[in-house]
Amino acid sequence: MLKQRKMFFLLNCFPNVSVKHWCVFLSSFTVVMIILIFTTDLKNRHYIHFNSTYIWDFEECSQESSRLIKLIRTEFIHSSNVSLNGLSAKRFQRKIKPSLQLLKIFKKKRFGTYFELGAERGLDEPTSETDFLSSQMEWRGLLTQPHPDIYKEILEFANPKVHTAQVCISPTIYVKHAFFRTDVDTNNSTSMPVPCFPLYSLMRAYNTTYLDLLILNRVDAPMQVIKTLPLSQVRIQVIGIVNHDVNSEEDLSATAAFVEDFCCAEEMVQLLEGRGYRRTFSCPMQVSYQICYYVCAKQAGYCPYKLRH
After folding, report:
1. How far is CA 103 from each of CA 108, 109, 136, 137, 303, rounded to the nearest angstrom?
2. Can you list the alpha helix ranges (DSSP code H) found in 17-123?
3. Pairing between strand 291-296 and 277-279?
4. Would you tell me how many other CB atoms lie within 10 Å of the CB of residue 204?
5. Separate counts of helices (H) and strands (E) for the chain
6. Short-list 280, 238, 279, 230, CA closest to 113
7. Which residues form a coiled coil (predicted)?
8. Contact at 8 Å (CB) between 224 and 172?
9. Would you state the pLDDT for residue 105?
């Protein structure tokens, strides 16, 4: 009865349209709406699946977004809470050696704060410059590592007093993402997206805008990362840059001429010296050095200052 009334209404409103045409129209309309409903539902499911694990819904947030900072603090920064015991503890402790360069720079400073971006840990990895600071000098710090497999080693060997984050560092002031392959030596290798946060957002999420030490370890575009820091809101005493390619024995060949030395790159030197830092090394870098340090020349110890335009 209801269908008859609807058809009667349509025929009265549109007398020039036949019943056959109306049936074709209604059938087509019904099919289109069904497809649209199911497609929309599938899209929502697809989005929710990724959004439950990743951050696509706020990838274009700027580094000062309070929403972004809160989410990083609650969802991505974790306490390592590693309890070392037995043989593992002894093997780990034997690897921790004081960094002569950092001892010279910081003397016996205790309770400092550091960030190590692109950190690496493991029995086969050399001792990090920051291990001694956190284990012997009561420093607190954040270790970031985007690669899922390497991050597992971070969790296994990181000092219990530090925090960790499985993230990469954005070379812009906005959130980005990158893909990393996991289990590359097995048949189950998959590609995993990882969020890339601006350094300033990570600092705010860690409740600090001051760092005694910033180490750029495995970081793409370190110069661009430094440029993203808002000069009026961030103070850093020492910046360390690891030149993996320059210092690797595998790269001491004819191809080494094509490897960029970030420590001595003219643009990097001008950038950091323009912000008040001085070099503690000579250029070109010696092969024996694995890391170079720029130290704030300001008496108070934190830069930038005396900005050049």
Report:
1. 7, 9, 12, 11, 20
2. 19-51, 66-71, 86-95, 100-106
3. antiparallel
4. 22
5. 11, 11
6. 238
7. none
8. yes
9. 93
For 4, 5, 7, the CA distances from 1, given in Å and listed in that order, are 5, 6, 10
What pTM, to 2 d.p., does this model score? 0.74
- pLDDT of amino acid 156: 82
- Tokens 């830092």 belong to residue: 277
Closest to 251 in 3D by CA, of 264, 262, 260:
260
Q: Which two tokens stand for residue 2?
A: 């209801």
Residue type, 64: E
pLDDT tens-digit series, residues 228-286? 999 999 999 999 999 876 544 444 333 344 456 889 999 999 999 999 999 998 887 76
Amino acid at the residue 237: Q
d(CA 220, CA 236): 20
Residue reference for tokens 């069904």 = 34
Angle between the 19-51 and 2-13 helix axes, to the nearest 10 degrees?
110
